Amino acid sequence: MELSGSIPNSSDLDRFSVALQVSREQVGALYERGVGSTDSEHHAQLLAAIEDLSIAEEELRAQQEAIIEAQRELEIERRRYRILFEGAPDPYVVTDEHGTIQEANDALAGLLGVPAERLVRKSLDSFIDTLARQGLDACLRESPTGETAYSTLEVKAPDGRVIPVEATLSVLDSAFDGKRSFCWQLRDVSERQETEASMRALNRSLNARVAQRTRELELALEGEQSARKDAEAANRIKTELFARLSHEFRTPLHAVSGYLEILQQNIHGALTKEQRRDLDRIHQAQEHLMALVNMILDFAKLEAGPIELSMAEIPVEETLLGAEALVFPQFAKKKVAYTHHAGDPCVTVFADREKVQQILVNLLANAMKFTPAGGSVDLDWRLEEDSLLVRVRDTGPGIPAEKIEQIFEPFVQLHSAGSLPTGGTGLGLPISRDLARAMGGDISATSTVGVGSTFTFALPLRKHILLAPSFQRPGPPVNFEGASRTPELTLEQSTAALYDLVDDPSVFIKQDWKSYTPDDHEVWGLLYERRMNQLRKNGSKIFLKGADTIGLKKETVPDLAEVNRRLAPPTGWEAVPVSGFIPAKSFFQCLSLRKFPTTVTIRKRTQLDYLPEPDIFHDVFGHVPLHADPVFADFLQHYGQVAAAADNEEDTTRMARLFWFTVEFGLIREDGQIKVYGSGLISSHGDAANALGPKCDRRPFSLEAVFNQPFEIDHFQDVLFVTESFDQLYEAVEEAGRRIGAIR
User: Fold this and answer.
1) pLDDT tier for residue 654 given thresholds of 50, 70 and 90
2) Could you give the 3-state DSSP secondary structure of residue 391?
3) Is the distance from CB of 55 to CB of 15 less than 8 angstroms?
4) How far apart are CA 302 and CA 408, in angstroms?
């Protein structure tokens, strides 16, 4: 704070003294000269001296006022200092260089439990722990003026309490006598230390609990793994048991059926009417028992694990007719009218033919069984949005609304009051619904008591292709009521058909996942983490969703069996492990079967950035996630069918360019931004950076432009194409098929 006036110093006092001295000398001189001088001269000199004295008096008064003002402001500052000093929340104490307390505030008095006035002139050492005094005295002696020192001390209160404090020592300016003073700030850290100790104890407790819980989880995991192994062993035993039971039951039942036919043909002599009636009953019982055995075995297979499916594009109308042929005689025998409403014979659906027919036979047999003689059963089908709906209607007794879901439970059979049991196990509908759901569909029912029931079998509808004759395999005609129909078929989706596609079937191998080394898994993790970090920003969201669907993770090289288990439900695609190169024609035909030839080797650590040939990271990380998307899956199968039908060099080159600029190096626009989806861009940091960088010419996708754009595989691509959707790619393949004559 600045003072309103300056405090007089020694020079001011000297000037005042000189002025007074001069005035006295002047008065004396005037007196001596006055004896001989005139009265007027004497008078003038006296006036001048008086004037000088007045001026000196004014100067003295002004300086006195300045001193008083300075004293007043000094007192204000002193009171302000006392207020701050006394009111400070932390303990403060001022000592001399020997540690004698000169001032202490109320906070210090509260800390020590001693009034502040009783602390003055006491030694601070008396409150400091004995072991710390020597170091404290050295600190007081060696601390330069103006510097601040820090220390942790233990203060002993008179009542015996030991208080840990954090001490901040500031050296004050030396006094006029050359002695120094020290200002101490003592902060009580006992609560903080208690908190830290509690935190350490809590951390130790948590670490112990985590270790204990981890051990419990490890033991539980070991128990779960042991239980799983036991369950798998029990399941294998059950499977073997059912296989043996199948043989033990079916063999004698088939023998019974054979002998019944011999007897009915009168080979051993003519039968009486009563004997023939008894044989018919035996035959019915044999067929019923065979159906029960088959039903129980089917149910056991469903309970044992995932259902094995042979998914392919199958003609809807022909499949329905094939199922009808198996139950039609029963309708005629029971005198139940049956009507089939035929649909477009060219429509196909992606499903397992055998399982579809099994479901339809069960639905038709149930309708026939619960419909009284003279009633009727209708079958019709239609396409609704993206689904195929097959409806079986009957005029049976109907099912109460509250019991409709019960009929889909195993071993549940409903009977109306007064009706007789209809036979069966109650497994047909549960098995049929499980089979439908395994193919991505479902079975539902609606019913009105006294009117009848309607069962609806739904399957997801996929786009279909009609293959050129050069790429068809002939199938046997299906006969129903004297009609002969020759269906249009795709390649059979079976291992045997797959092996037929190559000259050396040994190229198809099994992935020995346990043979991957820790370094292999680490290399996969490095590649995965580096690419995923970028793809979360510039990768297609369809790829990211697919990677999650098939269970890609950083920690381990993918197990293709697990990948395929996750991939089958959404699209039916499968990653097939191969040991080496597959010719282009065979590769395309594999795609047409929804089989993707997959390399199982992984690059070395020295080849992280570039590998001239595909490996499992390029094939599984780069390709397979998109196979989980239904639209892309349809496009890729469609491409394989069309490309395999190309029969000249020009068409093969065009189809290779279409594959290169879509499946390998494709770009897609999503939410207004260009994203990568081609496997070469997904799996390669350098290629992706080039594709999205300024040197790449990114053009709108069109089939004509792609067909006319050559490419080279040994450097970054100068030209790439941006598609708007995978539907656009599917349409491009259809147009390509028409151009090369693969689609009619």
Assistant:
1) very high
2) strand
3) no
4) 14
